[in-house]
Write a structure and sequence with these properties.
- The chain is α/β, with parallel strands linked by helices.
- The chain has helices at 19-35, 43-51, 65-74, 120-132, 153-164, 176-190, 193-198, 216-227, 248-269, 296-312, 330-345, 366-383, 390-393, 395-401, 411-416, 439-451, 462-475, and strands at residues 38-40, 55-57, 60-62, 79-82, 88-92, 98-99, 107-110, 114-117, 139-141, 169-171, 202-206, 213-214, 232-236, 239-240, 275-279, 282-283, 317-319, 350-352, 357-358, 363-364.
- The protein contains 17 helices and 20 strands.
- The strands form six sheets. It has a five-stranded parallel β-sheet. Strands 2-3-1-12 form a four-stranded mixed β-sheet.
- Helix 4 packs parallel to helix 5 (153-164).
- The protein is globular.
- 45% of the residues are buried.
Length: 476
């Protein structure tokens, strides 16, 4: 007799907060916003907040809990991002994780030449690597290029990223003029504003200044995004013991309050603005004073933030896969693996800095991207969980092979052996020959191959239109 077994699906999950702790953090954050409030130095934003029912006294804004809860209801609870050609591929919903590297930084770790000041060409290399590697579904730039004029570097970096990688791009830029230029590029690439809105492939990134402060020019960009329906990330970055309380829970509370205040600002400007919540909570290493990217405390607090995002039913911008190491060494691998697995298991959604930022956020490395791509392959395989259904339980197969048999020639093995993750980088062979390539050699060679990747072309005529925009920026 055959018993029918349903297809039972379960995604591995880790929690760091109890339901009661989540509520306490939420209530404490509301208390901070009502009692302490935030500082805002932008007159138009103050008008929006005052009109929505906040208590405004000079630049200090105290936000009532009822307004926070109302804005939580107004904000979209999912966000879909597309590729340049309009394919909707990144779905921020349901606790799924989407990993992306940051393409630019202060320095660049060249696979052959070593550490160099970061240039526009380096961004093109990293963008091609990000497009070629399958476990990266989006990327990010912050506008650094030492060989370009400071007032144009952000636009040129974004143009380079959009030209050399067709995946969604998170970006930040100097001012609202640059933001308008980026929006114009996106509309040209998409083929019009309506098509861009159908599957936005750029997301603006903004940060409040911890503790609890909004800088005027940053708010100006937030207002522009809200008025033009550009998806918006407001990520707090409190540093325990430096710009936030030394207690981890206190840092989570402050970071949560800062991000929620950004949510309120976006929803009072334009209800329904696509908003991504987040807070990159980490510690100040008191021995070095660095803003650490590889600590266990960062991973723990970000896991707590992921649960807060699920409590609010909001898309989350998170962090994993970076390192404080200056080299691609065991420290770099251990820190990144620990972070990536914990981020996926706690349900972080849009996970940045993955496989790119080294030396506490001061150096980008294509080799590190390639290495972390393989780590993500293992993490993604783990997060699929066990397939449990009538076929996978294999009762009939076990009976057919019987005691003492083997499965190498059974049809089920041919059918399923590719379900296993096979790395292009890691070596599982037996007893390597003395002259066999070492890990560092294999990583360098594979990275150089990916750096030579030819990116997907822009639509016909679009590259020329972008070049015209660039010529206009340089004349202005």
């Amino acid at each position: 007799m055959t018993i029918s077994i349903p297809d039972l699906k379960f995604r591995p999950k880790m929690t760091v907060l109890s339901p009661e702790q989540i509520k306490e953090i939420h209530w404490a954050s509301l208390e901070v916003l009502e009692r302490t409030g935030i500082a805002v130095s932008h007159p138009k934003a103050l008008e929006y907040l005052d009109g929505a029912g906040c208590r405004v006294n000079g630049n200090r804004v105290r936000i009532p809990a009822s307004l926070v809860e109302e804005c939580l209801r107004r904000a979209p609870h999912r966000l879909t991002l597309g590729r340049r050609d309009g394919r909707r591929e990144v779905f921020l919903q349901g606790g799924n994780s989407w990993f992306g590297p940051s393409l630019d930084c202060l320095d660049f770790l060249d696979p052959v030449k070593g550490r160099l000041p970061f240039t526009l060409e380096h961004c093109a290399y990293n963008a091609r690597v990000a497009e070629a590697l399958p476990n990266y579904t989006w990327s990010m730039v912050v506008g650094m290029a030492s060989d370009q004029e400071a007032n144009l570097a952000d636009r040129l970096i974004i143009k380079t990223a959009l030209t050399n990688c067709d995946k969604p791009l998170v970006f930040c830029c100097n001012d609202v003029a640059a933001l308008k230029a980026v929006h114009e590029m996106a509309v040209i690439i998409a083929g019009g504003q309506d098509k861009f809105q159908q599957a936005p492939f750029i997301v603006h990134y903004s940060e409040p200044i911890s503790p609890l402060t909004y800088f005027g020019p940053a708010v100006e960009k937030v207002i522009y995004c809200c008025e033009n329906r550009i998806p918006l990330i407001i990520l707090s970055a409190p540093q325990a013991g430096g710009t936030s309380p030394a207690s981890l829970a206190g840092t989570v509370v402050q970071g949560n309050a800062e991000s929620l205040s950004g949510l309120v600002l976006s929803q009072v400007i334009a209800p329904g603005t696509p908003f991504v919540y987040g807070t990159q909570t980490t510690i100040m290493d008191m021995r070095t004073t660095i803003f650490t990217y590889g600590s266990a405390e960062q991973a723990l607090m970000i896991g707590a933030v992921a649960q807060m995002a699920q409590f609010y039913d909001l898309p989350l911008f998170s962090t994993a896969g970076a390192t404080d190491s200056k080299y691609i060494d065991p420290q770099a691998g251990i820190e990144a693996t620990f972070q990536c697995l914990s981020a996926a298991a706690t349900g972080s959604s849009l996970v940045h800095d993955c496989g790119s930022w080294m030396d506490h956020g001061s150096m980008a490395s294509p080799e590190y991207m390639v290495m972390i791509n393989d780590i993500l392959g293992m993490v993604n395989q783990f997060m699929k969980g066990l397939e449990v259904n009538q076929d996978s339980l294999a009762v009939e197969v076990i009976d057919q092979v019987g005691p003492g048999g083997n499965y190498l020639q059974h049809p089920s093995t041919l059918k399923r052996f590719k379900d296993v993750y096979y790395s292009k980088l890691f070596d599982r062979s037996m007893a390597n020959k003395p002259d066999a390539p070492k890990f560092s050699d294999r990583l360098r060679d594979l990275t150089l191959k990916y750096m030579a990747h030819k990116p997907a072309p822009l639509p016909e005529g679009v590259a020329a239109e972008l070049d015209k925009l660039e010529a206009g920026w340089r004349k202005a």
